[in-house]
Amino acid sequence: MTRKKKEEKEPQKIPMYDFQGEKVVEIETKRLRSFVGHPYKVLDDESMRLLTDSIRKNGIITPLIVMPTREGNYQIISGHRRKYCADVLGLEKVPVIIRTMPDEDSIISMVDSNLQRQSITYSEKAYAYKMKNEAMKRKTGKRRKTADGKLDHFRGESKRTVEIISDQCGDSPRQITRYIRLTYLIPELMEKLDIGELSFNPAVDLAFLSEEEQRWVLDAMDFAQAAPSLSQTHRIRDMSRMGTISEESVKEILIEPKKKEAGQITFSKDQLRKYFPGDYSPEQIKIEILEILDQIFK
C-alpha cells in the first residue's frame, strides 16, 4: 500500500515591514487575481500614467490589500490600479497586506476602498452601492424576496442597509436606492449616462423599463439625435406602467420639440459653488438640492 504524500505547506512569508500596524509581505504578481465582480474600471488614462510614473520612481508606497483564495492565489481587495502599474513596469513582486475575512466583509472593504475616489462614473458607483447593499443584507441575514422569487433591493429591510451606507458614504438613502436602480439599465444606456449623453434623473426613470422598452428608447435617441428630458422619461415610464407603450410612441415622444418649462429658475455657478464640494458636477449639485428640498417638505 502506498502512502499518500502530505500536502506541502507554503513556507511562511517573512514580513518586510509594518504598515499602519499590519505586516507587509511580498507576493508574486502572477498570483494576484482581480476581485470577482469588481465594479471599478481600470483605465489606461492620464491618472494611471501618473501613478505608473510615481511607482517607477518611488515604488509602491501603499501596499495592496489581498485575501487568500482556495486555489492558493490571492484576490485583490484594494490595489487593482497599483497591480496594473506593476504589470506595465514588469514588476515580479509587490508589497501586500494579507487579510482573511468573510466574503461579505471583503466585498464591503473592496467597495469602500474605491468609493471615495474623485473620478468615479455613475455605473461604477451604481454597481458598487449594489454590491455593498447586498453584502450587508447577507451579513445581517435580512434578504427579502418578492412574489416572483427575486431579491427586493428597494423595500422593507433594504431601507436599513441603505441608511447605514448613507451614514458612511454621504449620499442620502433615497439617492443610494436610485443609484442601485441604475444597474437595471442596458449597457448602451449606462454608457450614455457615463459619457454625459444621458442625464442622471431621466436614466433612473428608464431603469424601470423592460430591456425591450429600453432598446426602443435607445433607438429613438439615435433617430432623434437627442436625449430624453425628465418630463419625457416620466411619460415613457407612465406608458410602460399602464401597458400602453410601443416602439412608435417612444419615438414620437423623443422627436417632439422640447419646450422650456414655464417659471424655470436658474442660478449661476458662483452662487452655488460655495455650498458644494469643488469636484461636484452641475448634475450632482442639482440632485443634492432636490434631495435637500425633499427632506424639508416631506
From TrEMBL:
Q: Which domain of life is it from?
A: Bacteria
* An annotated GO cellular component: chromosome
Q: Which GO terms describe its biological process?
A: chromosome segregation
UniProt xrefs under InterPro entries: Chromosome_partition/occlusion, ParB/RepB/Spo0J, ParB/Sulfiredoxin_sf, ParB_N
Q: Which Pfam families match?
A: ParB_N (PF02195)
An example molecular function term from Gene Ontology annotations: DNA binding
| Residue span, ParB-like N-terminal domain | 25-114
Family under the similarity heading: Belongs to the ParB family.
The UniProt entry, under NCBIfam families, shows: parB_part
Q: What is this protein called?
A: ParB/RepB/Spo0J family partition protein
Organism lineage reads as:
Bacteria, Bacillati, Bacillota, Clostridia, Lachnospirales
